[in-house]
Amino acid sequence: MTLPRSLRWTGGQLDLLDQRCLPHSVVYRQLTKWHEVSDAIRSMVVRGAPAIGIAAAWGVVLAARSGDDLDQAIEGLRASRPTAVNLSWALNRMQSFVNSKGWVDVRELERLAAVIEAEDRALTQALVNYGIGVLPDDCRVLHHCHTGAVATAGVGTALGVIVAGHQHGILKHAWLDETRPRLQGAALSSWELGCCGVPSTVIVDGASGLLMRRGEVDVVLVGCDRVAGNGDVANKIGTYNLALAARAHGVPFYVCAPSSSIDITTVDGDAITIEERPEDEITHFHGEPICAFGVRAWNPAFDITPAHLITGLITEFGVIRSPSRHSLSALPLVN
Ligand code: MRU
Q: Which residues of 212-243 are buried (b: 16+ CB within 10 A; e: fewer)?
């Protein structure tokens, strides 16, 4: 089955796949204003680091078409979510282009947004091609959150590696963390793997330690929202616990990191802003309270995995083993 595209530019409007409706229905939201794109990123209509960067680039095009103040639009879009650097990365490219011209040419901005989107398709495919090289024969892979096609404009990152591993006959099974509190693993990853015919099992996040202890996991594959200059990685909350468990059980732990997620200007993981989301994502389920009345919740959306717990970063340039400031600064990054 062909997966729906995460976004479509239709010439004057951005159609965004509403990921909140998956797996039950495929619904596109039609957006014509930059602040609608900003709201869609914040409310996670569109989510996944590469997809929000690309959506933001199209948001700048919508602002230009409406004659809105571009600086205001770019800063408004940048503020939608703070952790995934792909957002700033795409907006900086749009901003530099405007600054270099000194005036706004809507057609040229449109072309640049299309280039950013096309690049993502190419680089996710290149990353996946390198990623299948780290998979042992007949492997059972554990994955966290959702990093598949609809989190990008292309084939996805870690989940793309899992799909390709299955197609090449290397991957035996995928274990999917459900990923509390928004359940990207249960709702999105299981759906995408199902569409691609990959055998998978959803587990609660807390089950991964037991699985590893029983020898049921050969490799852990995750995505990322930002790689700092020293190789520390911000990714969905729970990734750090997974990396600790993997290290304790001698399981290789790989992070799929397209160059659009690598930020060597951020010195280390502690310098990354961690988004904190509303308490009701934890205290409520589908609008119904699941905690006692008045209970408080802390809801960081991401955590930091230190570089020393990472076996390798899988990028479109190849696999960087034991990532470090030295190896990352040698990459040909576009900023
Ligand atoms: O809050 P989300 O769902 O946007 O978080 C997504 C993740 O943490 C993904 O692992 C990451 O963005 C990589 S998507 C290729």
A: beeeebbbbbbbbbbbbbbbbbbbbbbbbbbb
Map out the domains of the chain with their CATH numbers: 7-118 (1.20.120.420), 126-329 (3.40.50.10470)
Q: What is the pLDDT of residue 164?
A: 98
**pLDDT of the residue at 86:** 98
Mean pLDDT of the chain: 97
Query: Does any ligand 1 atom lie closer than 6 A to the CB of residue 301?
Result: yes
> Ligand 1 pocket test: which of 20, 184, 205, 227 has the largest number of ligand atoms within 8 Å of its C-beta?
184
Of 177, 225, 232, 303, the catalytic one is 225
Query: What is the rounded CA–CA span in Å between residue 195 and residue 75?
Result: 37
Summarised one tens digit per residue, pLDDT across range 193-233 is 999 999 999 999 999 999 999 999 999 999 999 999 999 99
Is residue 148 in contact with ligand 1, taking CB distance under 6 Å?
A: no
